[in-house]
Automatic annotation (TrEMBL):
Source organism phylogeny: Bacteria, Bacillati, Bacillota, Tissierellia, Tissierellales
An MF annotation (GO) of this entry: RNA binding
Record protein name field: Transcription termination/antitermination protein NusA
Assembly notes: Monomer. Binds directly to the core enzyme of the DNA-dependent RNA polymerase and to nascent RNA.
Residue span of region Disordered: 350-430
Record key words, sorted: Cytoplasm, RNA-binding, Transcription, Transcription antitermination, Transcription regulation, Transcription termination
Known function: Participates in both transcription termination and antitermination.
Gene3D superfamilies attached to this UniProt entry: 3.30.300.20, Nucleic acid-binding proteins, NusA, N-terminal domain
Gene name of the encoded protein: nusA
SUPFAM superfamilies registered for this protein in UniProt: Nucleic acid-binding proteins, Prokaryotic type KH domain (KH-domain type II), Transcription factor NusA, N-terminal domain
Gene Ontology CC annotations of this record: cytosol
Native species: Peptoniphilus lacrimalis 315-B
Biased composition (Basic and acidic residues): 357-368
Main location: cytoplasm
Superkingdom classification of source: Bacteria
Length: 430
């Protein structure tokens, strides 16, 4: 019987990843409680189980004192020396005991305790396992939906996709398989709660790491990501190797790599732009697919003025301001947009040159930026007001072709020689 018990523990350890020592400790504690309960004693008892054979031994121990007050847990020094002359005050006297029917009674009492301990241990193993995978990519099978929550089978446990972590417009049906970001693991009374996400920007990062070997190997790196899940994403990349084109690496042959990501995201549009150390070039790239003629910047308040051709004003702003909004998130700059005709009219009205405007803008305070009524802008530092963005409509403007392979026409310098953060944390790109 003992050998069968050890073999059963080995199977539990192998299948569930629960150490045998945890079960042995649980059994020993349960047997002690069982003995005290069934024999109505207040004795100090300990149970020892042999880890190799499964043999169980029960011991009662007493403290050696000068004068006995509780004979259940104490023994006098005089009586202890009769047993062993080497005993002294403060030692413990231990004696093995053999209660009748102890095995049967203990098994009945300890059964539920051990089962619960195994469940708790299994939950702890799952919690630790999934905690190590936070912000990693997982593939799950949709099980069911309830009150807007989607429950996903992850193998060892079940994950939950909350409504605000879902991609708008996606329908999650039983049996559908999706790649998801493991956002967070929480402890609860029912076990670990695994929170998943399909809308987090880090999902884009992990998908590109999966599809683009150059990113996975660290040759091409992601600088930042801005995303409006289900609609559009902008991602800024750069190459550490001058001979590797970061844009080409991410797009792949005939768009195979990026198209695989687009398919996984239910045709969410993705703009890939090149990160540049020069903020003027980076801001111009970020407004892709619109062409940018000039960019004026103010380093103090991180604001920029981009000048675009008249026919591309609406393209630069995007539908409901989406393009400039995502560009502002991507770069971390407040971006104002002006058409070329508005720009020229302003120069004429103010009777200033381009150089004077550049100087004036660089010295301009943030509070002065709202003075120009002809300026269309998006403030990245005040995202909650983004819905109030007023966009000038130009009937002659070409509609944006938001094809994934469109990129900026600007002359791009791919060489980046200074080190900076390799990974952008989620709070930088949300």
């Amino acid at each position: 019987m003992n050998q069968e018990f050890i073999e059963a523990l080995n199977e539990i350890e192998k299948e569930k990843g629960i150490s045998k020592d945890i079960i042995f400790d649980a059994l020993e504690q349960a047997l002690v409680s069982s003995y005290k309960k069934n024999y109505g004693t207040s004795q100090n008892v300990i149970v020892k189980m042999d880890r190799e054979t499964g043999e169980i031994k029960l011991f009662a121990y007493k403290n050696i004192v000068e004068e006995v007050e509780n004979p259940e847990i104490e023994i006098s020094l005089e009586d202890a020396k009769k047993i062993d002359i080497n005993f002294k005050l403060g030692d413990n006297y231990t004696k093995e005991i053999h209660p009748k029917n102890f095995g049967r009674i203990a098994a009945q009492t300890a059964k539920q305790v051990v089962i619960q301990r195994i469940k708790d241990a299994e939950r702890d193993v799952i919690f630790e396992d999934f905690t190590k995978k936070e912000r990693e990519l997982l593939t799950g099978l949709v099980q069911r939906s309830n009150h807007g929550n989607v429950y996903v089978d992850l193998g060892k446990t079940e994950g939950i996709l909350l409504p605000n972590e879902q991609i708008k417009g996606e329908s999650y049906k039983h049996g559908d398989r999706y790649k998801m970001l493991l956002l967070e693991v929480k402890k609860s009374s029912k076990g670990p709660q695994v929170i998943l996400s399909r809308s987090h920007p880090d999902l884009i990062k992990r998908l590109f790491e999966l599809e683009v070997p150059e990113i996975n190997e660290g040759i091409v790196e992601i600088y930042s990501i801005s995303r409006e899940a289900g609609s559009r994403t902008k991602i800024a990349v750069f190459s550490l190797d001058p001979e590797v084109d970061p844009l080409g690496a991410c797009v792949g042959y005939k768009g195979q790599r990026v198209n695989a990501i687009v398919d996984e995201l239910s045709n969410e549009k993705i703009d890939i732009v090149i990160y540049q150390k020069d903020p003027q070039e980076f801001i111009a790239n970020s407004l892709s697919p619109s062409k940018v003629e000039k960019v004026f910047i103010n380093e103090d308040d991180k604001s920029a003025l981009a000048i675009v051709p008249d026919y591309q004003l609406s393209l630069a702003i995007g539908k409901e301001g989406q393009n400039v909004r995502l560009a502002a998130k991507l770069t971390g700059w407040k971006i104002d947009i002006k058409s070329m005709s508005q720009y020229e009219e302003y120069l004429e009205e103010e009777n200033i040159t381009e150089e004077e405007l550049e100087k004036r803008f660089s010295e301009k305070k943030e509070s002065d930026l709202s003075e120009s009524d002809s300026l269309d802008s998006y403030d990245n530092s005040n995202e909650e007001n983004s819905e109030d963005l007023e966009v000038e409509k130009n009937e002659d403007t070409l509609k944006s072709n938001e094809n994934i392979e469109e990129v900026s026409d600007n002359n791009i310098n791919n060489e980046i020689t200074e080190d900076f953060e390799n990974d952008i944390e989620s709070n930088d790109i949300d």
